[in-house]
Amino acid sequence: MKTSNLEDVRLTLIATALTGLAWIAFTQPLLAADGAKTVATPADKVARGKYLVTTSGCNDCHTPWKVGASGPEPDMSRMLSGHPEKMELPAPPQPSGPWIVAAAATNTAWSGPWGVSFTANLTPDKETGLGKWSLRQFSDTIRTGRHLGRGRPILPPMPIPMYKHFTDEDLAAIYAYLQTIPPIQNRVPEPVAPKQ
Amino acid sequence: MAARIACISVAASLAHGVATAGALPERLADTGLFVSGSITEVHPGNLPFTPQYPLWSDGAAKRRWLYIPAGKSIDASKPDAWEFPAGTKLWKEFSQGRRVETRMIERLGDGTWRFAAYVWNEQGTGATLAPESGIAALPVSSAPRGRYTIPGEADCRACHEGAAVPVLGVGALQLSADRDQLAPHAEPRKVGDLDLHGLVERGWLRNVPAQMLKTPPRIKAETTVARAALGYLHGNCGHCHNDNGAPPPVDLLLSQSATEAGVDKVMQSLLGALTRYRAQGADASHAIEPGHPEKSVLVARMRSRNPHNQMPPLGTQVADNEAIELIERWIRNQPQPSKEPLR
Questions:
Q1: What is chain B's mean pLDDT, rounded?
Q2: Cβ–Cβ of A190/B277 closer than 8 Å?
Q3: Which domain holds residue A79?
């Protein structure tokens, strides 16, 4: 093997190792200066959950949108409380050509071939949100695409096909964070079946 | 040392025919259900059983078998959560005019359970392992609407892992000799079918409370209709609506206990808290409104086959009219709750 090839291999190995270290640093428990492993605290878990909820687009659909000074934006006074209970909606527009999906201005009601779906209340309100849910029920819901892991199917546009690949640790972090946000009482309507 | 013990343990398990996690047999014929070379003659070591409150499966005819490894037994110390030994297997065959599907549950050497579905060919000459994701609409001309759903592995777990033990049809109440004659779709106990005494006599069940053998378990309802209604809800809904395993947060408990009068707890949950579910435009309601089946959420969801709100949520495409009629009769005869004066 020529020297230049060896150098390429060495650089590749170094780059791979650095990438791996970066990944480990982001996903694994931290190492203290003396090398001892430190266990993630509950605050760490909540912080990571907040990061995941924020970057994974949960607010895009589960927080009602309003028209603000700069145009449409999530109404954070109703953060993650799902489709507003009292919002009255007319029948959705009929699909036309390739345009088969319609969304309400709040981004919380969606019409498509599955019928009409309303985004869920993810706040820890005990009666209308996730306040009574266990971590297992939350994780099972994301893993299986079924309500509570064993009920009705979770409908589009919830990206279950992607989110089901979250690690157990990530789902636990998301659940932990969602249990800390302000509870909002808002009973989201049941989905509407498509017309036969 | 630990690794060596683990190796010895695995070797011992394999010697007893206990499977470890790995590929499932591709053919039903290789799962041990039948005698070698047959797809009709069930191995004599696999014993039939018939639960008294069968699960509604769109009218499919069913046969069921249980296998317990030699020298092993079920521990009934917890009467509502029997502990099955590693190597336990159960099969359930579904027929819609012909054999369509046979499901299998198996407890592995590490204590976990695995679930499989085998699909019969139209000629009935063999059954092969279904895809892990199941088959949404298998064409079966004799099935309702000409199609049949083979559950995916996640569907199997959705129902079976909601209970304290994933085995739903083999338990003290389901195999009680005091069988409910009014149970919807009740199948008469066949010759050779296992019941509590049969399991004990065969050495497959130990630590059964003596009182339970003396007086077989029975739902302690006030009327025969109430007993059958509560039994139906136990057999069809109790695997999710229970407080033994992972209960949904709906406060609705429908599973019965084999040892205590579970009736009161179930009735309190049926009549007590308002249901989380509300139909479009409807006000809050209870699962059952005494005297008014038409106002009872329980009946509405049993009758619906809209996948967004039907109950049970999976495993059925056709409403169980016989059961709905029974539940309506039971609710119609329910006394109105007393209205105490304000103090």
A1: 89
A2: yes
A3: 40-178
